[in-house]
Design brief:
The strands form three sheets. The chain has a four-stranded antiparallel sheet. Strands 5-6-8-9 form a four-stranded mixed sheet, with no helix packed on it. The chain is an alpha+beta fold and 208 residues long. β8 and β9 form a beta hairpin. The longest helix is centred in the N-terminal third of the chain and has 21 residues. Helices cover 21% and strands 38% of the residues. The protein has two domains: 113 residues, Dna Ligase, domain 1, CATH 3.30.1490; 67 residues, no CATH class.
């Protein structure tokens, strides 16, 4: 959450067949939505280092019930090309559902604008470096855990996350415990602690 930017999303219903769409009217709607987003950023009291705006439209084939949200880069509007807009919709429909219908007519259901204020990010703190194996002080003993992957219970080593160091590696099955959660390494998994304390897990191949 500390690395998230401040974002406002606005949507306005704007129902029309693509062949009848007026780019001038679309532009006015987007300008209004983006202006609302910038006002919301200014009213938030949070100072952003930069502001960016993105556009999208909810579109569907004529006769469909559910629309698809299509990201619309600025060049689509500079070119004022309905064909380019239709191609982007077809491509997104294909990506989402595995099929598209370039020959079918499309319609716009609503217009969307996203206004993002880029926030200053805190500096990441690196943790102390250790060897390949965790220190003995990080061990919390063993717990009996049932793994469906091997069809039986296993005396599973447990580690305190706060005791792990950068460079430590743990082979599954294992548990990494902390105050709010427990990370489970299944048999065949492998964990590596990176320089910032993240747990990078390589999931092992499993067969049933």
């Amino acid at each position: 959450m500390l690395f998230s930017d401040l974002r406002y999303d606005f949507v306005r219903t704007w129902f029309t067949r693509l062949v009848d769409a007026s780019f001038d009217s679309i532009e006015r709607v987007y300008e209004s939505l983006i202006a609302d987003g910038k006002k919301a950023l200014a009213a938030s009291g949070v100072r952003a280092e930069g502001v960016a705006a993105a556009r999208a439209a909810d579109m569907r084939y004529v006769g469909q019930e559910h629309p698809v949200t299509v990201e619309l880069p600025a060049e689509v509007f500079r070119r004022r090309s309905r064909d380019a807009l239709k191609r982007r919709f077809d491509e997104e429909h294909l990506r989402r559902y595995g099929t598209c219908a370039p020959e079918e007519a499309a319609e716009i259901v609503s217009l969307r604008a996203t206004v993002t204020g880029a926030m200053k990010k805190p500096r990441l703190e690196r943790i102390a470096r250790g060897g390949r194996s965790p220190l003995s002080s990080a061990h919390r003993g063993k717990r009996k855990v049932y793994f469906a992957e091997i069809g039986r219970s296993h005396a599973t080593p447990s580690y305190a996350r706060e005791g792990l160091k950068a460079g430590n590696r743990i082979e599954g099955p294992a548990l990494v415990e902390e105050h709010a959660s427990t990370t489970v390494l299944l048999p065949g998994d492998a964990l590596r602690v990176d320089e910032f304390g993240n747990l990078a897990i390589e999931v092992g191949r499993r067969t049933k």
